[in-house]
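Think of the structure tokens as a kind of shorthand, similar to the way a musician reads notation: each symbol stands for something richer, in this case the local conformation of the backbone. In the example below we present two proteins back to back. Begin with the first one, reading the sequence and then the tokens, and try to describe in your own words what changes along the chain.
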Amino acid sequence: MGSPRQILAVTKGHGYDRNSFSELLDVLPGIACTQVEQPAAQLHFSGAEPDRWDAYLLYDMPGFAFKPDRSHPDLFDPPRAFRDDFTSLIERGHGFVFVHHALAAWPTWEEYASIMGGRFRFVRDDRHPDSGYRHAVEQRITPAGGAVGHPVLDGLQDGFTITDELYLSEIHHADITPLLVTDAELTDRTLWSTWNAVIGRRDTNDGWEHPRGSGVVAWVRNHPRSRIVYLQFGDGAAAFGNPAFRRLLANALHWVSDRRSENE
């Protein structure tokens, strides 16, 4: 067996179970993960640092600073140097796996959402509804039409059951290839408004309307050089310990790492 893939796992910006997340990373076959928090992690996107990493695993959610009274979050842009470094790595063919709440990161940076293939919106405005959530939903996950045989789904062709958080969020369907879908109903009647939770009205849907979700919970973002995968799973210990999710994450990290090897 060859040397393990060297993966930089980026965290911070959203609460999570650190012990179970670290345990997850430790058991991924053929993979060695190094965890670095934001904003220190940004140093690993510049200069010669990216040569150390076969791929990046983003489990962070920067770009928010919630006010003590929770009346409205302060939103802030990423540093210009980090934006340039990040987009340069994409163009050079580095692989990225975005996990769970990374879909909500850098809310003021539109290109970031374009790179991921979607956006979870904490904030409601005149043009966009806020996204929805619901914790601890038992759901059946199956391959999307045409996805059977994709390397990221190796060993998961029959689907799996998982208990995890659901999202009702924006997906750029024209730019992605769906990998997995959930059987859970994704509507503004079955999930909760995130904006209401932000302003202290948790688990209410007053004033919230959102189009029905497609059910896609994992996808590949089509890009000419980089391999980019988004996995919605990963809210906590129940998901981290799920054997199917562990296999899915390992598959994704190996697959996105392979593209970098091809480009060298």
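Once you have a description of the first chain, move to the second and do the same.
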Amino acid sequence: MNRRMRTYYYAVFGAIGGLIGWQVSNLLGLSFITNIYLSEAVVGALVGLSIGLLIGVAEGLLTLNLVQAARSGGLGGLLGLGAGVIGLPLSEWLFQSVGAGMLGRAVGWAIFGLLIGLAEGVGSRSQVWKGMLGGLLGGAMGGFLLQGIQTLLKASLLGKAIGLILLGASVGAFISLIVVLLSRAWLEVKTGKLKGTEFILDKFMHLQGHAIAIGSSPLKSEIVLPDPDIAPQHAMLTGDGSHFTLKDMSLSGTVINKRRIELAQLTNNCTILMGNTEMVYHEKRWK
């Protein structure tokens, strides 16, 4: 998926998570819980688990990396559960005790979104602060939308369903949008099964960060290219804070700008060929 479509898919997966969370909590009924805050905590846990899980698996599924999908989805679901337990009762407390109304809902769901963003950042090993900022903004926006829809539809089941769908979509969209807007470097796949996919590299650029592998095995490489002519660990990518260096680790070789290399620094718009897969490296410099 390219960077623009990434935000769309994150929004869709987040919306599905909100819908699943609403449906599960609706089926359970929760009429046996008389304490409103405990009830909100249980509902929040279900919603958070669903949204965190779906957003977590999004990028792994869309890049055909099931290992990453399972790892990020599991962590996202667990932290999302915790986020819901905190966020929904907090928004209810603000709403009930200080009369904050829509603002109270927004604050509570902003904290929920921040924790979902934390989970996504940790799960995908990205720059965590970007996920947290996106989640914070998405949760606040989702909180306003949820409360607005519930008020408009007089707190009906339909209003709750639409509100949670919009909440999940907003959290997912903003988490991705912040990462995309602030991205400095990415690889664009030009040929093969992942044609059009863009791998954002900012999370790997920092100085003294560990080298990452590009290859065909999801167990041995962080960036996975499903190409039989690419080795399980084909090349290693190392950041120095401002640039990337690519080191070939394969028998078949790595070609940059039509020249076979052993070790080379990547430059903006250079072409990289591994097996039958061609990629273009893009970078954006801040002035």
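Compare your description with these statements about the second chain. Helices lie at 3-28, 36-62, 66-97, 101-123, 128-152, 157-181, 202-205.
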